[in-house]
Design brief:
Strand order of the largest sheet: 7-6-5-4-3-2-1-8-9-10
CATH architecture: Alpha-Beta Barrel
Number of helices: 14
Structural class: alpha/beta
Strand content: 5-15%
Shape: globular
CATH topology: TIM Barrel
Protein name: Radical SAM protein
Keywords: Iron, Iron-sulfur, Metal-binding, S-adenosyl-L-methionine
Largest sheet: 10 strands, mixed
Number of domains: 1
Oligomer: single chain
CATH class: Alpha Beta
Radius of gyration: 21 Å
Cofactor: [4Fe-4S] cluster
InterPro entries: Aldolase_TIM, rSAM, rSAM_sf, Sulphatase_maturase_rSAM
Number of strands: 10
CATH superfamily: Aldolase class I
GO molecular function, one term: metal ion binding
């Protein structure tokens, strides 16, 4: 990776551990980086995270918080499907974390496919103060196109039952957030209307896991980025969302871009210039960079670090983890020359990968991100009163003017 012209900030600390508490899943989503994009290391993982692994992990987190004076830390329970782990695991984990991490405000959340959710799970999550997020990809047809079980059956009805159960639950402290992977073959307005009608206050959209050696559906060659199908999809959804007053649902992707346009960096992995202060902990205690990098090759994220042998500072110094941590500062030359780089931050690190050049590329979604950012900035400026528009110092942009010449990928 070629360095940027500006000095690169040194790695600092980790404030979130994403825990792969189960290496199994009851669904078999075709786009899943864990099981279906070429990585097979899940086959060698323990099915569930063991108590001794948890003990090592909490010791590392405790030391890390003490060394860096951290006053808060978040654990995100992930998988596979985290609700395949027994309820007793969460009882023990949360109790021990709160007991051991004295002086640290500890937060917990779980990212689930929602199909296994029951009233008993809602009671447990509410009592332990664990926030819930559920994956759902829009309308039944759009969702079931990719999110199927191991028998090939669609999962929408089971997910919808889980969402409705969570919405009605008296146990949960807050309604679940919804996460949706973009399907450009689906109608974006129909997807938005359907998800907004579910009545949840928070929604986010994720680009499919892809890179220059593994192009997403809708892009058949990198030159197809001229068409920017993902930007076209998101722009239609954004315009419908902007016209909806009062706002029916907060969409994190749009909120972040609008904030960054106005100089407020609340970016999260995809955008902005902040450090990615996350570490992944596998069921065997392996410490890894973001799991989406598994799509770059079998064993790609196996960097030799483990909570049994490495503290978090040592893990953050591992080259691939460090690159992910600092990825919004380690940019390709084309990104450094771009006028919207302070908003997109070069995009999500795994999306930059190519087998020939590693991560020294713009995102495979580069032109989609550019076109979306330009549209949002212009739409935002149009919505501001003239004095406020002048105060921002922003001007309308044209997508065609962003590059003096096209970036070339080899």
């Amino acid at each position: 990776m070629k360095p940027t012209d500006a000095p690169v900030p040194a790695p600092t600390f980790c404030q979130t551990a994403i825990l792969k508490v189960a290496s199994l899943c009851n669904l078999n989503c075709s786009y899943c980086y864990m099981y279906n994009l070429g990585d097979t290391t899940y086959r060698r993982q323990p099915k569930f995270m063991a108590d001794d692994t948890v003990a090592w992990l909490l010791q590392r987190v405790q030391t890390h918080c003490q060394q860096h004076g951290l006053r808060q830390f978040r654990f995100i329970f992930h998988g596979g499907e985290p609700l395949l782990a027994p309820p007793q695991f969460y009882e023990r984990f949360v109790a021990q974390a709160r007991l051991q991490l004295t002086g640290v405000r500890v937060y917990f959340s779980v990212q689930s496919n929602g199909t296994l959710l029951t009233d008993a799970w809602c009671e447990l999550l509410g009592r332990l103060r664990i926030d819930l997020s559920i994956s759902v990809d829009g309308t039944p047809d759009a969702h079931d196109q990719f999110r199927r079980d191991h028998q090939g059956r669609g999962s929408y009805e089971a997910v919808r039952r889980g969402i409705e159960l969570a919405r009605r639950s008296a146990h949960l402290l807050a309604p679940p957030a919804l996460m949706s992977v973009i399907n450009v073959q689906a109608d974006p307005v129909a997807v938005y209307e359907h998800l907004a009608d579910l009545g949840m206050p928070y929604l986010d959209f994720a680009l499919p896991d892809a890179h220059h050696g593994l192009l997403p559906t809708g892009l058949h060659h990198w030159r197809d980025m001229d068409r920017a199908p993902f930007a076209d999809w998101l722009i239609r959804l954004f315009d419908r969302w902007m016209d909806d007053r009062p706002v029916r649902v907060s969409i994190r992707l749009f909120d972040q871009i609008m904030g960054l346009v106005l100089g407020i960096d609340n970016g999260f992995e995809y955008f902005g210039g902040r450090h990615n202060e996350f570490l992944i902990i596998e069921t065997d205690g392996s410490i890894e960079p973001v799991g989406t990098l598994k799509a770059c090759g079998d064993g790609f994220t196996k960097v030799g670090a483990n909570v049994r042998t490495h503290d978090f500072d040592e893990a953050l110094a591992v080259p691939l983890i460090q690159l992910y941590h600092l990825s919004h500062h380690q940019l390709a030359a084309a990104c450094r020359a771009c006028r919207v780089v302070e908003v997109c931050g070069g995009g999500f690190l795994p999306h930059r990968y190519s087998p020939e050049r590693g991560f020294d590329n713009p995102s495979v979604y580069c032109h989609d991100l550019q076109r979306l950012i330009v549209h949002i900035q212009n739409r935002l400026l149009d919505a501001l009163p003239a004095p406020a528009r002048r105060a921002t110092g922003l001007r309308r942009l044209r997508f065609e003017s962003l590059y003096p010449q096209r970036p070339v990928l080899h």
